[in-house]
Amino acid sequence: MPDNVLAFMIALGMALVLTPGVIAFARRTGALDKPDARKVHARPIPRIGGIGIYAAFMVSILVQLSFIELTPEFMMSLIGLAIGGSIIVALGIIDDYCDLPAKIKLLGQIFAAVVLVVGFDVRIDFITDPLGDFIYLELFAIPATIFWIVGLTNTVNLIDGLDGLAAGVSSIAAVTIFLVAMEEGIPFVAMVTAALAGSAIGFLYYNFNPARIFMGDTGSMFLGFMLAGISVVGAVKSAATIALIVPILALGLPILDTTFAIVRRARNHRPIFKPDKGHLHHRLLAHGFTQKQAVLLMYVVSGLFGLCALALTAVSMQAALLIIAIVAAAVFIGARKLGILQMDVSQQK
């Protein structure tokens, strides 16, 4: 635990120290997020805050490596995460300055995932079915893992629509995976998620409403990529967890928001990659919530998802299936109430 506390505190402190410099750099270089019909802020805001998150995380990990030893397998995984995450950050910086087409970003995300999965052998080899039996993916292991990593990278990216939303939800997910890793006895995953949570929470100080800086694609893609990669390396590959359900629940809010967006756009014959104002946070604002209220409510929902994920590691399979069924029912009812699957034509970009 002391190592994890240190990893968290170093990342937290570095994010608090580095982010003001990132704000100044963004203003000087024109990395500003300008208001438009789909966005909720009214003035240009610096948008490369992910650089501060990335730098804080890397410093924390490097300090930890100076006095702890990792097994060769975990060291290779860490190097893979660092290289893949660096590729994602480079892609995000380019996008934050140049607004890359969605397909180009997707190709960059796939490349980063391939580096991690193929280059460093970080992949999902098996999942467990409801009866507890192992299902080995074999030839599908690599494409399934790439799909998982790219998918989660985009879920965090898509939920980054309100001040502090993506940073807070990612922090909650990181803490959830940290606690599962501690329970399962996977210290490497605990250390890395502690550092990731610290860097995101430190950045949140400047990103909560009214935000002084946005993380941009640089930060949201980095957080999504790291959470996806870390979950593959550790807890989700433990026989004691229910396959991929723990990280899916830990990131339940952005995953569901992305899923609803895909279904909504498909039902309304719109391109999947074309943005709209039908995301959960847009619907909450349309129902009269303020930005702070909407974000805090989504924090609570994310926290409840996290508690469900923790509960799944400590209960029987029958109880776990009951929890999942209750969560699914609640999500369906909430989605219908908010009209998330409907397309408001007046709000289209």
Can you describe what's shown?
The protein is built from 13 helices and 4 strands. The strands form 2 sheets. The protein has a two-stranded antiparallel ribbon. It has about 350 residues and is mainly alpha-helical. Helix content is about 70%, strand content about 5%.
Compute the CA-based radius of gyration: 19 Å
Low-pLDDT windows of residues = 344-349
The rough form would be described as globular
Helix/strand order, N-terminal first: HEEHHHEEHHHHHHHHH
What is the helix content? 55-70%
* Biggest sheet overview: 2 strands, antiparallel
Approximately how much beta-strand content do the residues carry?
Answer: under 5%
Keywords:
disordered C terminus, single chain, two-stranded antiparallel sheet, 3% strand, 349 residues, mainly alpha
How do the strands and helices of this protein lay out in sequence?
Blueprint: H1 2-29, E1 32-33, E2 45-46, H2 50-65, H3 72-98, H4 102-119, E3 126-128, E4 134-136, H5 141-159, H6 165-184, H7 187-207, H8 216-233, H9 245-250, H10 252-267, H11 280-286, H12 291-312, H13 317-338
Antiparallel strand pairs: 1-2, 3-4
Task: Please outline what is shown here.
The chain has 349 residues and is mostly helical. 69% of the residues lie in helices and 3% in strands.
